[in-house]
Amino acid sequence: MTDDSVTPMMAQYLEIKAQYADAILFYRMGDFYEMFFDDAVAASEALDIALTKRGFHLGEPIPMCGVPVVAAEGHLLSLIRKGFRVAIAEQMEDPAEAKKRGSKSVVRRDVVRLVTPGTLTEDSLLEARRHNFLCAWAEIREEGALAWTDISTGELRVMPCTRPRLAPELARLMPREILVAEMAEASVRDVAADLGAAVTEIARAAFDSAGAERRLCTLWQVATLDAFGAYGRAEIAAMGALVDYLDLTQRGKLPLLRPPVREALGGAMLIDAATRRNLEITTSMSGGRTGSLLEAVDRTATAGGARLLERRLSAPSRDLSVIDARLDSVAYLIEHSALRASLREALRRVPDIDRALSRLALDRGGPRDLAAIRNGLFQAQLIAERMAGNGDAVLQEAAESLIGNDEVISILNQSLIEDPPLLARDGGFVAAGFDPDLDETRKLRDEGRAVIAGMQAQYASETGVQSLKIKHNNVLGYFIEVTATHAEKMMSQPLCETFIHRQTTANQVRFTTLALSELETRILNAGNHALELEKQHFNRMRNLVLATAGTIGIAARGLAELDVAAAFADLASGEGWARPKVDATHAFHIEAGRHPVVERALRRQGAAAFVANDCALTAQDAPAIWLLTGPNMAGKSTFLRQNALITLLAQCGSFVPAAAAHIGLVSQLFSRVGASDDLARGRSTFMVEMVETAAILNQADDRAFVILDEIGRGTATYDGLSIAWATLEHLHDANRCRALFATHYHEMTSLAQKLSGVENATVSVKEWKGDVIFLHEVRRGAADRSYGVQVAKLAGLPEPVIERAKVVLEALESGDRDGGARRKTLVDDLPLFRVAPQATITPARTSVLEDRLKDINPDELSPIAALNLVYELKKALAE
C-alpha cells in the first residue's frame, strides 16, 4: 500500500530543504536528527549508518537515516571532512505548544546554523592548537585583497593581495574554506583547491564595496572604518563578504569579531606552497603534524600560544626591529630560568580563553566556558604579578595586558562552582550562597527527595511489601511500584482506598496516592524554578563577559605572546641553540648548524649524534652560491633544508640550532627539493620540477634565499645538465641571490672558476673495501664521483645487477676518458646482460685462522702468550 500524499511534517521538511539544497539537512525529531531522500542516502554512506525507510512519496519509499542529538558533533565532523555542508534545523517550540493548535499540527522548525568547514566552533570539531581560517578573496579592477578570520577566536585580518600573490598567501594560511565571487576565474578556484580547501561561491553582491562598508560599520557600531585604518575598496569588499557569509551561516548570530588588523604587503617573508611542502614547516609530507618543524619546536603550554607559534612559523617577519625585540624576550627568559619555569607552570593552567569567548558570543557556550574565562583570567592576574618589574619591553607590554579584569574574575568566582557542567540546561553550576532565592528553592527540591525516601519507607511498612519502591519517569511522574506478586494485596481492601492503580506492565504494577501527587507537584515546581533561576544567572554572567570581551581578548593575546617567548627560551636552553644575528646586510654565515627535525629524530631513535656543518655564503660584491656535490644518502638534502629552516627560525624570533649564525635579512625563501608528480593536471615529475624552478627564477630578488636539489635529473643527461647549468648562471647573474645548489652533474663544478660568486662544496665520504661510508661532513671542494652503484648495493639490489652496473659504469667512464669515442659503440661493445641461473648458495667454509680465533679470549692472554699467538697465526697463514 502506498500513500502519495505529503504529510504536514514532510511538507515542512521539503520547504526547509529547498532553501538549503546544497547542504545535508539535519531535521530535529525529538532526540534525533533525521535525514530523508538523497540526504539520507549520502549521509548513510558517508557515516556508515543504517539506511531505512519512512512512508512513501510519489509512490516510492522515502529513504531515511538518523543520528542521536547527543552524538551529533562526531557525525558533523565526519561529514565536514568529507566535503559536505550541514544545515541544522531545530525544533523552535515545545511539542506541547504545537498540540494546542490541533492534534495534527507540526512543531515549528527552522535552520539555526549552516555548518561549513570554515565556520566550526566546537572543541570536538577543531584542533585546539591550530587555527581554522575562513578566507575571502576580492578583486576590483586590478586591485585584489584577501581577508581571513577564525570565528573560534574572533581574529580578523586583511591585506592587499594581487592574483599572483594569492597562492603563496593561501599556502601560508592553509584555510579550511575560501569564499570567491560567483563565476570567478577557474585559476582562482584551482589555487584554492590545490590546498585542499573547500571553495564556496557566493553572490557577487556580497563583494560590493559600498554595501560591505555599511555592513562593517554596523557590525562594529562606528560611523566610518577610518578609526581602524585606511582600506582599499577590494579590502573592504573581502571583509564585507566574510561578514555577509557569517551572517548567513550563523543565522544572524554573528561571532565576536575583533576590529580588523591590516597586514602590510611585504611585512612577512614570502614562502610559496612548494617550499612549505618541501621544508615541512607546519605539516609533514604525509600531511600530519608529526615530522614537521612545528612539531619539533613546539613547547608552548597553551592552545593560544600554539596557534601564535604556528602563525609565526608560517610568516617569519621582515621587520628587523620586531625580530630583535622577540629575540631579546627569548634571551631574557633564558637568563632568568627561575622566572621562566614559574611562568610556564602558570601557563599550563590557562584554558583556551579565545575559543570559550567565541562560543559564548555565538550562544553555543555553557557554564564550562564561563569557568574557562574565570580560570584563565585568574592565572593571567597571577602571571602579571610575577612579571611585575621583570622582562624586556615586549614581555612587559604583554604582562600589562593581563590586568584590568578584576570585576569579571570576582563575579565569576562568586557565582560559579569550581567544576561546572558543560550545558546550562543541566543546572547545578551556580555556587551556593550566591543567590538566597535559588538556595531556598534548591533546599525545597532536595528536601523533597528526602521526603520521597521517607514516604517510601512509610508505605512499605504500612503495606508490608518491603520491595515497594517509589520511582519516576517522564510519562507518569512519581509512582509506586511493586512486583506482580503483590498486586492483588495492593488492590484489595483497605489498601485500594489509598493506593490508586495507574499502570500494569509485564512484571510490575504501578500505583499513586493523593499525598504523592501533591508532593510531586511541589518537587517539580521547585526543580524547574531552580533551573530557571540558574539560566537567568548564566545569561547575566554571559552578558558581563561579552561586555568586557575587548579586555579579555587583549589578555588572551598577552598570554599567547608570553607563552611563545617562554617556549622558545625553554627550547633554546634545553637544546643548546644560539641567538642569531639578523641585520640588513647580505651575510649568511652559519657555524655548526643542525637540522632540528632530523636531530630530534636521531635522538629519539638512540642513533649517532647529528653531524653539524658550517655554511658561509657571503661574498664581496657578488652573490654567494655554494655548488654542492656528493653521493646520494650523504646528507646533501638535509644540509640544504637545515640552512633554510635556520633562516626561517631566526626571522620568527627564535634562537637557532647552531653554534652561531649571522643572517642578512631574507625577503623570500624558495625550495626545490625532492620529486613528485601532479597526475591530476597531467604533469610529470619533471614538469612539476620545471614549474617550481621557473617560479623561483621569475620571482627571487637579491634578498632571497634559494635551495635547489638535483635540477634537471628528471630528463636525459645532456638536457638535464644544460638546464641545471643555465639555472645556476641565471641565479648568479640575474637573481643575484644567496643559494645552495646541490647536483650530481660534476661537470658543473668548473663553473666555480668562471662565476665569481660560486664556490664548490662537497659532502665527505670514505671508501673501505669497496663500500662507501657516509661522514655527513660538508667541506669546500668538489666530489669526483657519485657512488651511485655503492648506494644501490646498500639498498639491497641483487648482486648480478650490481656487478653489471659496475661493468657499464667502467665502460662509460672509459668513453669519457677517450673523448666519448667509445660511447658511440657502447651498445655493440658490451655483451648483453645475462642473469645467471639461480643456484643454491652454500655458506663459504671458514679458514683455519678463523677457527683458531673463535676459541681465543683476548682478556685471558698474557703478553707472552699473545706474542706467541701472533707467531702461530703467521706460520699458519704462510702454510
TrEMBL record:
GO terms for molecular function: ATP binding; ATP-dependent DNA damage sensor activity; damaged DNA binding; mismatched DNA binding. Pfam families: MutS_I (PF01624), MutS_II (PF05188), MutS_III (PF05192), MutS_IV (PF05190), MutS_V (PF00488). Keywords: ATP-binding, DNA damage, DNA repair, DNA-binding, Nucleotide-binding. ATP binds at residues 630-637. NCBIfam families: mutS1, PRK05399.1. This protein is involved in the repair of mismatches in DNA. It is possible that it carries out the mismatch recognition step. This protein has a weak ATPase activity. Belongs to the DNA mismatch repair MutS family. This is DNA mismatch repair protein MutS. It comes from Gemmobacter lutimaris. The gene is mutS.
